[in-house]
Each structure stands twice: as structure tokens, then as C-alpha cells.
Design brief:
4 strands; mainly alpha; disordered C terminus; Rhopdopsin 7-helix transmembrane proteins; G-protein coupled receptor; 74% helix; two-stranded antiparallel ribbon; GPCR_Rhodpsn_7TM
Length: 340
Amino acid sequence: MSKTTSHDPLGRSRTEIEVEVTVAILICLTAVFGNLLVLYVVNRDSRLRNVTNLFIHHLALTDIVSATIDMPFWITSLYTGTWNFGQVWCQVAGSTFNFLGCASILMMGLIAFNRYMKVVKPTLYKKVFPNKKAAQMYCVLIWLVAVLMAITYLSGWAGIKFHMRLLICSSEHTAYGLASAGVIINGVMIMIFYCHFRIYKAVRQSTENLNAHAEGNGIRSLNDTGRFNITEIRVLNACFTVACFFVITYIPVYIIIVTWNFRFDVPQTVHIASIFLKFSGSMVNPFIYGIVNPLFKVAFKRALSFGRYGNSDTNQNLSRNRVAVVEMTGRNWTIFTQHN
């Protein structure tokens, strides 16, 4: 029978501490491995070297830094139930936490905007994203914005304090901290939902037009072949998976920090669940890429099998009777025609 640990400030049992620390370590290791795999395949596979995946590359970098800098502090605090590194390191850890949160959220917004321009505004896409150099500049701009936000915390202008129930160092109750986080999180969240909604509408309209064109030319419609339903489901999955995981992993911990600053009483279970969700966001992204994106799935298999996994099955899938389909490339939806 587990007994409450008298030395634990949160009154957790030894079993509870061991379970929490074990799960946290697994999240950390999975995040590092999964995102390193993303970096590897994006740099190694020529089919993945495009603008959208360049943004995914930078998003994976934020997750790796989070797993190698933020998570070790968090895991140590999970084990001890307190902060053991002094105020200076708390300032560093809290600033890094806010820096990476800002960078990753803005990068998610940039990815959503890139897809939106590619699908909904294709004529403007080449002007806004003319080449990879321009895309790199957008990424640099995001990193600079995140650095500027971190400097305000490192300089002491915006306070950092150890959150005894989340077991992380985070921003104190200041107008700047709450306003900046609120504007960035809420603003980007609204933009992501809007972009994915417009993508869904555009793809659905294109699919309906393809059905009408196919029927008019005596070709089986997408509905008859069952491809329309599959496509519609994939559109919904792609749009809402990204948006929902963004909300699930980022919003709860922000709400907890706000309620903590205003001295609202929230159960400890909710605190722990929210911070686990926040850090698990660094872990789930590679799984989403592998499930939703066929090119990432093939690249992951090739990397994990050390190149033994070939492309024959992919080539066979692309050799079909002439039929108009809608396929997702990365997370951009492209209409094309397949030939024998």
C-alpha cells in the first residue's frame, strides 16, 4: 500500500510521484526522438523539402528545445515537489518556457496561413511565399519576436515565479504577461481555426466541381468510387486534428496560470493534467504528421527501417485508372489527375 510521502509539499504518495515522473520522462524522450526523426526526414527526403515542411522543421526545433531544456527542470520538480535551482535559473527556465511557447504558437499560425494561401489564394501564394529564402525570413522573424518576449522576462521587467502546483516557473500576475499571452494565444488560435475552415470549404467546393465534371464526361464520380467520402473525412481530420490539439495542449495551462494569478482555487489534479497536456504537445506532432501525411509516413518507415522500406507500394498506389481525386500533400490540398 502506498503511503503519503511526508517530504512531498503536494502530499503525493511515493507511487504517485513515480508514476508522474515516469510518464514525464517518456513524454520527454518521445518528444526528442520523434522531432529528431522529423528533422532527419525533412532534410534527407527531397520530396519533403518544401516551404510548408520548412516551417514544420522549425516547429520541431522548438519541441526539441522544450524537451531538452524545459522538461528536465519540470521532471526534477515533479520528483522533489519544489524548485531546487534558485531564482536565477527559475528566471531562465520561465523565460525559456514563454519563449518556446510563443515561437511554437506563432509557427503553428504561420503553417496554417501558408496552407490557407496555397489552397484558397493560390494567385497570391507565389507573391507571399516566393521561395524558401522568404520562408526562412518568416521563421527568423518569428524567432526574433519570441526572443524579444523572452528578454522582457529575463530582464525582470515581467516577473517570473515558481508555480508550486504546476511545478514550473511561469510569469507572475502582470498586465504585460497576461495581455501578451492572451493576444498571442487567442489571436493565433482564431487565425488557425479560420484558415482551416476556409481550406475545408475550398476543398469541398473543388470536390463538388470535380464530381460534376466527371459525371458530365461519363466518368464515375468521386461519390461512386467512394473517394469523396474518404477525402471529406481526411479534410476534417487534417483541419480539426491540428486545431484541436493546439487548443487541448496550450489553452488549459494558460487558463490555470491566469486563475493562479487571481488566486482562484483549482484542484491539484487539474494543475497536473494541464501541464502534462502542455508538454505532450511536443510529443504528438510527429505522430500527426505520420498519420495524416502519406509522404511523412513513408519517410518515417524508410528512416526507421534504415532504408530497407522501398517506394514500390507508393508507386503502385499512384498507378490507377484515370480519375480525378483530391489528395493531401503535406497539409496542403491539391487537385490533380492520375494517369495509368
